[in-house]
Amino acid sequence: MRQMIAGNWKMNGTLAGLSAYASALRQGVEGVDLLVCPPFPLIRPLIEALGDASIWVGAQDCDAKRSGPHTGDVSADLLAELGARHVILGHSERRADHGESSTLVRDKARAASAAGLVPVICVGETEAERDAHETETVVRAQLAGSLPDGFSGLIAYEPVWAIGSGKTPSEDEVEAMHRAIRASLKKQLGEAGEAMPILYGGSVKPANAETLMRIPEVGGALVGGASLKAEDFLAIASAAVRD
Ligand SMILES: O=C[C@H](O)COP(=O)(O)O
């Protein structure tokens, strides 16, 4: 199955740098789905800079409510109107920095789906939870709490300790967690859980992408730091499995 390589710029990127990035990305990579999630203000300019290239643009968060007196928040409906196609939800940085619970993530996923966006829901254990051998329990609980009934979208497994650290789990560990997530998805969603893409995220780089993308049940990557340089992002995409 075609893999998805998604870039999460986090709080990085500039308007001034968009044109060069988009030109480089427009060279593209065949047979792989590409998604770039810049900060909110860059969504529309990036869509325009990418023009007719088959590259999706998404957001890094949305609010759970459709509209109203919520200063500083951004609705899923507005993101969809801007042309965003996906929205990352429940990233560990949102869960940690903004105290987002799985219940809130679930409500955001509902709002995103209602607006026609494709949610990419993130789950993953901290280093302390891993050391306490609680990885599967934590991730199962996050899935149970974060996915609305009838959820349709993607999952990203991101061990928190692997994010931006240069460390990754072993291939066996990644495979075991992706299989555990698949089992949870089937249990929660039935048939819909069987084919739902499960991305891996956490220190994916051009040097390790080929190894990671060939692990069974890995449906692509959610890339942070390495998505900021178009050449690195494309190198990772080149390592993805073709359809
Ligand atoms: O959303 C992306 C992840 O947090 C991974 O970030 P990273 O590739 O910089 O480790």
UniProtKB/TrEMBL annotation:
Pathway: Carbohydrate biosynthesis; gluconeogenesis; Carbohydrate degradation; glycolysis; D-glyceraldehyde 3-phosphate from glycerone phosphate: step 1/1; Carbohydrate metabolism; erythritol degradation
Subunit details: Homodimer.
GO molecular function, a single term: triose-phosphate isomerase activity
Protein known as: Triosephosphate isomerase
Name of encoding gene: tpiA
The organism of origin for this protein: Acidiphilium iwatense
Chief subcellular location: cytoplasm
Catalysed conversion reaction: D-glyceraldehyde 3-phosphate = dihydroxyacetone phosphate; L-erythrulose 1-phosphate = D-erythrulose 4-phosphate
Keywords: Cytoplasm, Gluconeogenesis, Glycolysis, Isomerase
Top EC category: isomerase
Localization annotation: Cytoplasm
Protein family (similarity comment): Belongs to the triosephosphate isomerase family.
Alphabetized Gene3D superfamilies for the sequence: Aldolase class I
NCBIfam families recorded: tim
